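Q: Here's a chain of 641 amino acids. Please give me its 3D structure as tokens.
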Amino acid sequence: MAKVRIYKIAEQLGMPTREVMEILKGLGADVKNHMSGIDEELIDLLREERDFQKQKKEEKRKKREKTITLQTLPVLKEMARLLDISVGELVIELSDKHIIFDSSTPLPPLVVERLILERDWEVEWKDGLREETLKALHAKKETRPPIVTILGHVDHGKTTLLDVIRKTRVANSEVGGITQKIGAYQIEINGRKITFIDTPGHEAFTTMRARGAQVTDIAVLMVAADDGVMPQTSEAIQHARAAAVPIIVAINKMDKPGVNPDRVKQQLADQGLIPEEWGGDVICVNISALQGKGISELLDMILLQADLLELQAAPRGFAIGTIIESRLDRGKGPVATVLVQEGILRVGDFFVSGSSWGKVRAMTDDRGKGIREAPPSSPVELAGFSELPLAGTRIVVVEDEKMARLIGEQRMQGVREKMLGGAIQRASLEELLAPEKGEARVLNIVLKADLQGSAEALEKALGPLAREGVSINLVSRGVGNINEADILLASASSGIVVGFNVKALTEVLRIAKQEGVDVRLYRIIYDVVDDIDRAIQGLVTPEMVEEVTGKAEVRAIFRMSRIGTVAGSYVVDGKIERNALVRVIRQGEIICRDEKISSLKRFKDDVRDVALGYECGIGLEHFADFKEGDMLEVYRIREKK
């Protein structure tokens, strides 16, 4: 066999002579004996090793490129440079996540990680920077006042209760004694503040009640002792549950003769609200809003519940809040009731709210008094919007006018594109049943039927459809045509509306389209069951079983530089398939399991499988300690039929 000198091989492979000699040593070759020349078989091995080393270097280079190492927290400009985007693009990306920022303050670790991981890159923190920063951020938070929403049926005394608490006569000034708009008020008791949101009880204002339930910490459910649980009471319970907030029940009008609070508690228990004295976890307080009795006890219970919730907020920094309600004022232009949730809102701050932006020109508190700043949990009326903001949207303070304008105009462009592009995409049943990886799947259903019996039959039929990993939650069950309240409840709970032998008016369907709620109408009960069942079956995590496909006995062991250790084996049962899983059994004991086959060869050829009675070479991804006589049990994991 012809031989070629080492330096000639180095030239041929495009490698330094020293590197060729190092590879030879690594392969276990006697370099001295090969100084005069190298045979063709060794040349092939050198070529394979060179390519392998190049591949490893390339993988390391790519990993370095995709790994960002941080020794300090980056500010906005530095983060944009790391991500290779403009500061403006980063500002818009962060604003879409409702993240507070400014050019001089370092971005929080979780924000930095999210920005990097979303690009499929990796982040490496130095010297415990991440943990120390997170501890410092948590330490900066302070206890904030609770935000309490008053919910309940019309004329059950919600505004009268607030009237007594605030020692004002709001109820007398309202048309017909019914609240006509959302009001947000803050009171102080024993040196502690409580923020109240008064939502309308009338059915026509369900939209505002839904918004109130979405921003609250605690819901106070007003139930008149003489009326008991009414339709809007049940609706209020559903909204509070959709917002996942604790409920305190105030049983009002206890001053009336002959009232029985136990009857109300029984009705509440039928709705799933079990009073504490009956072994449940719902606080019930007997009050008379008209006479001011029981109010102190109710406020004490609210503060106790707030202590259990351990409500906290950042008391400094740029503010973030929620628009409770907005209106056009003849003198001030667009104004909005804002509930501050983080940071401090100040006069002169620039802000963004949806596609609207502006500067805080003036702020007034719940009594109409002008104020300069508002800490967390403060309700204020704010003027200075470029256009009327939508209720329920976030308001985020930004660094300057340039940034506010940039974000506002970008969002407005997005709104225009959606309008030109047609209807907003609905959240389908399949999308609702496909949350983030690792999270449980829950299908929330608002059910409406033509008859009570039909609704009960459907509830019983849908219950058994739940599977392991997918649950069905009946948010609401009612009788009659689908209305706006049903759409809003489904929107608040990220669910769908199922209608059986009922209608949905064009206006209701328009609202459903705006809210992105999937409305499904049926006339046959089996269609309802089949439709939901098909969707759930397609998303249930299948049961997996193990199937042994073959066995091979190790009869020789080969060590190859590029591939690693290979077990020369003889197939004694079934067949061996590439990419299958392997258990290594030695003298009856499993010494390695769940190893994947990395290489399968017949002589020098790669093959897909090797049948019974044939010899083959088997390499495993992370196991190389083979011994002659080992048994390789090959198996696959498949879905159980």
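Q: Can you summarize the key feature?
A: The longest strand covers residues 544-560.
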